[in-house]
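Before the break, one more example. Copy the sequence into your notebook; we will annotate it together after we see the structure.
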Amino acid sequence: MPEKIGRFMHTTEVSIEYDVLKENAKIALKNQDLLAKYGISAFNIMGAIGSGKTLLIEKTIQRLGSKYRIGVIAGDVIARIDAARFEKYGIPTVGLNTGKECHLDAHLVEHGLEDLPLDNLDLLFIENVGNLICPTDYELGEHRRVVIVSVSEGDDIVEKHPLIFSTAHLIIVNKIDIAGAVNADADRMVEDAREINSRIDVLKMSLKTGEGFGEWIDFVEKSAAKA
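Here is what the structure looks like once it is written out:
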């Protein structure tokens, strides 16, 4: 307990992060084992608000929905808005409200999986809460971690947030069609990503024009084949 000393208060710091993350990792592994049991390939889609996460998933459903059985978990402070965008395609969708939390965790996703028809899915897209900081340390049970950033966030956005890119399998630099208009260098963003993580795949993309989208679909299908 804090001890008052005159006008000041002496406090002792107690770190609980390790235990929280350790417990989260256990549940994430449990989630991954469950997905593996049903042969489902899961993608954790992370990125800031406005980067294009929701549209990326929507366009992927449009492209692959006739070939794969797709489900979505939509995580957000208020999840119903994005969830409704996926539900209109007639696919199984679960909205997870995070309330005051700025990320999904494995426990929330565990409950989301309970509400999905796992025996009738091939691909699962998990849309994380919109920021580049909070989701970094929380595994969900996914097979692939994907970070999407937009040139409109500034071409130093990757350099400013190295941790989330260091554990990603794929980085998408989106909205390259407007790079000139916002004075951003998409190539710099690619270089920064590869400097942080030399093993990472990086795609330059415009969801508006379709540039780079085929490479994303290839990534999804190759990942699905390994599940």
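The longest strand covers residues 70-76. The chain has one domain: 16-226. Try to locate both features in your own notes.
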